[in-house]
């Protein structure tokens, strides 16, 4: 009988575990798992939460600008330049440069960019050049690395999008495990999460220090224990009245009799110095973008001039990004040529990247002129 009762013993009640809801507003950075799904939302949260990352992407986008086109046929050249200058790119904007700005923004943030060439109703001209949300498509790999198809995301049946020739797709820094490209922000979630925790804690500390809370302690003397509760209630009422008068802009004194001690809650706690850890984290984030710190408003060195080595490195970074998006622009330009009966090839022309000091450039030009004069006289 005892054995049967032991077998019927009730199991222990389950423990309910509730996730804490408080935290900084970009809590997705704490729950980051490096899987393929959901990364784009994570990267956009980083841009929203860390302004210096957002500024770096915009600066890279502007540095990569200045696009033009060239072909051998003069008649086609005039029409092609007009197309690059006036093509509709949506949202009240015109020109391939406006299309390129958003295309690069998606490329840096999402790791790949998606565009679409929209034809007119009769199919004889290009009506618009639009950017699409990279989250709308998935890539279906073929039998060879040269064969891939774009499919609509979320359908579950890998349904290919029609008119693949009208879609523009560019991966950013593709790798062996990520042939569709990786985001510029791929290595930032961990560091950005720490940075936002520091900022959140700093904000809470200043909220505590700025909105003072007081502890009023009343110690009754000998023989006053019987009236301690009544006296504490009177002190609390008078203290609340004095604080309310201060909020309304008037000055009111608080007078108490006896041993009354008033302290600010948390005034003795020390606020941690965040300058060094924040700088160390920002150094990691800025190094990933390849932009000199002073271009982002960070004064980390005694000089504010860009050295020749920094200019060369940034120029090579911008040139590499331009080479990445050039095939998509060439496809749009050559499609326009074919639709208008021209068989020429299009060549994308970029503006020169000028990062040097104007004074130094003028001095170098003077030295070159002097050297040329000496060679002619010799």
Short note summarizing the structure:
With 378 residues, the chain is α+β, with helices and mostly antiparallel strands. It has helices spanning 2-7, 39-49, 51-63, 74-86, 96-110, 189-210, 228-247, 275-289, 308-339, 358-377, and strands spanning 67-70, 88-90, 93-94, 112-119, 126-132, 137-141, 148-152, 167-171, 214-219, 259-264, 347-350.
Structure description:
This protein has 378 residues and is α+β, with helices and mostly antiparallel strands. It contains ten helices and eleven strands. It has helices at residues 2-7, 39-49, 51-63, 74-86, 96-110, 189-210, 228-247, 275-289, 308-339, 358-377, and strands spanning 67-70, 88-90, 93-94, 112-119, 126-132, 137-141, 148-152, 167-171, 214-219, 259-264, 347-350. The strands form five sheets. It has a three-stranded antiparallel beta sheet. Helix 3 (51-63) packs across helix 5 and helix 3 runs parallel beside helix 8. The longest helix has 32 residues, at 308-339. It is elongated. It starts with a helix and ends with a helix. The relative contact order is 0.13. The model is unreliable at 13-21 and 31-37 (pLDDT under 50).
Q: Counting H and I runs of at least 4 residues, what is the number of helices? A: 10
Strand content: 5-15%
- Spatial order of strands in the largest sheet: 5-4-8
Shape, per Cα inertia axes: elongated
Radius of gyration: 33 Å
Give a quick account of the main beta sheet: strands, pairing sense, barrel closure: 3 strands, antiparallel
Could you give the order of the helices and strands?
Answer: HHHEHEEHEEEEEHEHEHHEH
Structural class: alpha+beta
| Helicity, as a percent range | 40-55%
Number of strands: 11
Low-confidence stretches: 13-21, 31-37
Arithmetic mean pLDDT = 82
Distance between the amino and carboxyl termini? 121 Å
